[in-house]
Amino acid sequence: MISSDKYWxxxxxxxxxxxxxxxxxxxxxxxxxxxxNADSLSCIEGVNIKKAEKYLRLRDKVDPDxxxxxxxxxxxxxxxxxxxxxxxxxxxxxxxxxxxxYKGDLFSCNLERTLxxxxxxxxxxxxxxxxxxxxxxxxxxxxxxxxxxxxxxDTTAHVSAIENNIKTIGVIASGFDYTYPTANKDLYKxxxxxxxxxxxxxxxxxxxxxxxxxxxxxxxxxxxxxxxxAEASLKSGALITANLTLEQGRELMCIPGLITNPNTExxxxxxxxxxxxxxxxxxxxxxxxxxxxxxxxxxxxxxxxSEDEKIIYEALEIEDKCVDELQAQTKFSIDSxxxxxxxxxxxxxxxxxxxxRYKRVNPVKCS
Length: 367
Fold this sequence. Notes:
Elements: H1 5-12, H2 19-29, H3 32-37, H4 49-59, H5 64-72, E1 77-80, H6 88-91, E2 99-104, E3 114-118, H7 125-136, E4 144-147, H8 153-163, E5 167-171, H9 185-195, E6 196-200, H10 212-222, E7 226-229, H11 237-247, E8 251-254, H12 265-272, E9 276-277, H13 281-288, H14 307-315, E10 321-322, H15 323-330, H16 334-346, E11 350-353, E12 357-360
Parallel strand pairs: 3-4, 3-7, 4-5, 5-6, 7-8, 8-9
Antiparallel strand pairs: 1-2, 2-6, 10-12, 11-12
Helix pairs in contact: 1-5, 7-8, 8-9, 10-11
């Protein structure tokens, strides 16, 4: 901690003043303490008079020492913009956060191999499974998955990263006094307790208000060398992040989906406009020019199958099927079929989904 930290924290605690304004003042004065103690801002070109007056009025109500202690007492780490440890990819975007607050071990994450993953909160099972398959192909690598800790694709990205021994960074749209969505409380803790870091630009007391979600998207893409979009409608936060990715000069990639799904309309728009199509992890590595050493798990090795089990496994090659469909295709008796299905579930090569439907568990290895 250095003496100027408290002024960065104090200014970021003023809800009505955003990072862009703080950094404009910092650029002018060259010293954050001078920014905080300035008597007048009239000499700064481009600063709105009313906003300047409002800033001075609100600034006078803030106690820098108290603001800093409130952060430290909550066990929150922070990086002011001027810190030499501030992520350089984020520092180079148009509107970087004045302060980056975080919990967990941010520097256990490889900030030279960051991949943003975004998509629909109401993601289909297909999109989640496709994303999980692709991330599993990066298992045990030094890549770091960055996402927004929302439901749907974000949650799948973080969980898949953790399951495959990959570090992950969750960027939230509130201060640390809030957990949103509450269903991800355990996921927050897992990330903070050794799987990466949770970060935010917001002072601990700031609530997850609607406008803060698109604001945080610039941090998700800004921390990352590229963004992978797993599912997105034409009007979605994921598409906002995709556009920010292009504005920031980063690589944009998309996982294709069913053309009958409204949540893929945004995907195909991006692909038509030049985004890289991704069907496996190698596509990501090629697009980003990364040579990443991956310790492959034996995810694709099947246990010994009986001839009858092979017939069932082959029947599930294209899509999941219900018991009646499997019986019609395999010609097994219902009793034999159910016994075989149970045995194959125990072997971990198929699983039951949507009631009585069955599908393969092991993904197909990308060639």
